[in-house]
Fold each of these.
Amino acid sequence: MRNLNLSELSGLAIGLGRTYRMLEKMPRVSRDEMLAWQLGKIRNLVQHAYLKIPFYKALYSGAGFQLGDLKTWEDFRRLPVVKKDDVVANYPERMLEAGYDLDRLIVSRSSGSSGKVLDIAYDQRAMSTFILAGLRLYRMGFRYLPWHKHLYVYTSPYPLSSLFGLYPLHFVSTLTPIPEIVSALRRVRPALLVCYPSHLRQIAAAIPDKERNSLGLKVISVNSEMSTQLERDELKRQFGCPVLDEYSSEELTRIAAQCLSGSYHIFEDINYMEVLDDSGKPVDGLGVLVGTNLHNYAMPMIRYQQNDLGSIHESKCGCGWRFRSLTQLEGRRNDSFIMPSGKVLSSGFLLDATYEFLLNYRTAIREFCLIQESCGSVTLQIVPDSGWSNEVSSKIAQRFRNLLEADVSFQITVVEACEKTKSGKQNPIVCRVKTVG
Ligand SMILES: [Zn+2]
């Protein structure tokens, strides 16, 4: 993701007051008010998508939808669900409004969770809202003040390093060895730490007991990988500050996060979230999470299917928020690898290693699957694209050999299609090593 330029930063600062007031107010409005507000936003968004975005025009016309047809939630639920493959296949020409200059948008690239490259473009206004929604998210955990330092261990830097010196951000790559992450924590002394749960466990193990409590941390936010409440409670005890889980995606941005009262609140003013069964009908229990982002007009995500399962319920929460709660969340499980020494390479670490080559060789790879065949052997399956070459292949191989242990062999095989599981799901990280216990 590129950095915000001066004019975008100024826009963010100017819009800060207005948007932030909206974000402060929305968690407290009644369910009926919220639904009415969401439907209004969705009607505008669907109209825009139908008129301006070729992909949606074709999709909705094909389903017999005409402009003006969307008046009620029932009408909305008749719109087809959009899947990741649709977005990948139609990006950029058919997913963006004609005339949008990609250079003026902010593009986020990810390896996603199915092994396919996924680009999502945000317009400036939407990006400002998402940045401020991030600020609100962290304020759910502590009184986040402009001089508090925020250290995040992530795949790539955010598009800004501070807001004119306020809310300073410190980036550390997820591929950084744990001792260096610990050094950064000691040097920066952040109030807020954001990282994967697997990193946090390793950080905890690398810092002596009595030092962990005196690092100056006020809250830790974990994301991207599954962690249990039990684990987070234990990490809270070890670090002496709340450890809260957060659920986001590149496509829908901020989806949900835990508050200090223990609810996992859906951000109803960022996305309209639905839970559907296999036939696409709303379901009360566990189902597929489908979201409509209410803000991104550059590349609308309307009834977009996340590859996660969850359930959502109304709740009365001690924090005073009236946003519904995510009561179950499953599906962020990818395999991890076990090295001959017993060291575990987490799915998050492996996904980031693959994300690195997708970023470096943007036209080289269409799909991939990283497979640990046996304890001492890892294979990367590649469906090549136009930029694939022997040179790219040997650079990727060299990088992976450095990340794996010395006695693990690594090879790349070029295939026509990456393999899928019995249920047809494609998993970018596959471990075939059977573990005991
Ligand atoms: Zn709450």
Note: The chain has a mean pLDDT of 89.
Amino acid sequence: MEYQEIIDRKKAIVNSPIKRIPEDKLKNVVDQFYKRNPKSLENFTQLKTIVPGGLQHNLGAADPFGLVFRKAKDDKMYDIDGNVYTDYLMAGGPIILGHHFEPLDSKIIELISECGPAVGLTHEYELRYAQEIVKHFPGIDMVRFLASGTEADMVAVRIARVYTGKEKIIKIGGNYHGWSDQFVLSTNFPGTGPSEAEGIPAGCYENTVEVIQNDFEGLTKAFEKYKNNIAAVIAEATGGHAGTFLAHPDWNKTLRELCDQNGALLIFDEVITGFRLALGGAQVYYGITPDLTVLGKIISHGYAGAGAVGGKKEIMACCHPSSINGKKAFTGGTLSANPIMVTAGYYAMKYSEEFHAVDKAADYATKLTNALNDLFSTRKDLPFFVYNIQSIMHLETACHSGIALVENPVSRAKEVMERYKVLRTYCLALLTQGVIPLGDRFYCCMMHGEDALQKTLKAWEYVLSLIPEV
Ligand SMILES: Cc1ncc(COP(=O)(O)O)c(C=O)c1O
């Protein structure tokens, strides 16, 4: 689906009434959820007495309670009550070969039997893995491994500041770059500023400049306003949250041009898109090469401690302890490039190439996108639709993100939450049908196939049946 059609259809949704599941039907859904998951409920009830909110992860849903899982295999997850799910969370993005991909996991078992989890010095797979990354990513000549996407984002901007000698970073509203102090700014929604920044002193944002997604004029103005002091622009190349706040087709090209004209670096945060849009990331998919690339969880296929920043040699050379010309961006991380991470990453990349994981996952996403669009079009009263960017699917139903596209989004701020809550009711209904969504997003893997497709369509038929026809 083309950019303009997506934008028009999102606007059409938010210009029509919210499609709620009526109270009585919603009560049945909630009752079903309780009935299916007594052990999860028991576990969650105990967990929340010793873990804030009973949940460690932003991507989980704890309303009415969080599910607890025991097993994962291929495209499926198994909870402790014996329910089986078709999974589209994919651990928040990193799983593309499928859960518990045995050829990969057996390499890690072998590794652990030989050297355990950490050596504290260089492991032999570090070189092999770095070479693979450099081979696939046009923007990466050198790579520094780190422990998470958040860390990698922090290091990328530090390197940019050291290299350029400038201070300000342009962050695009609604783009996510982890949770370090300087980046908890319009993280969930463009234009909301530091609304989630309790505990972060205002001074932390002094050098973070927000520009709204696709605001070409605002971008030019920011460069004019902070002339000669913009170190970098950091962005998700898809547009914020993996394409929820979708990038205009000319956006990345413009970012590249304005960075070049102003002596600023372009940083692509490829924590989601690296290995998923293409083995060489969004920079290959869109054909725009950044100066620095941030990588995260997918680079170890979900094994813990995964992050990296890569870039051109002369820029990366500022990264401590390489530091040339006395320019030093200090970095640390005891478990960075640990044997498990680099071995998992190396084989994940090798197997993704060998098994054509990127294409298979993307083909499935396109097939499911088309099938869901056919299903949604049977309900003329519902403006729902789906689009995909390779294996990332966006299901626009309650479409809280669409409020960002209206004339005066602030005037409809309350509606964002209302629409989001309605989305959560659809998600709960999907869970009762054995489908795990990531809110309005689905990540696909190469193991999704016909069974998953049919099950997902059935689950959505059920959700639609709960929404009264008008
Ligand atoms: C685009 C993007 N950048 C950075 C991060 C932060 O990565 P981590 O959760 O590993 O700190 C995420 C996490 O989802 C992300 O989606």
Note: The longest strand covers residues 168-173.
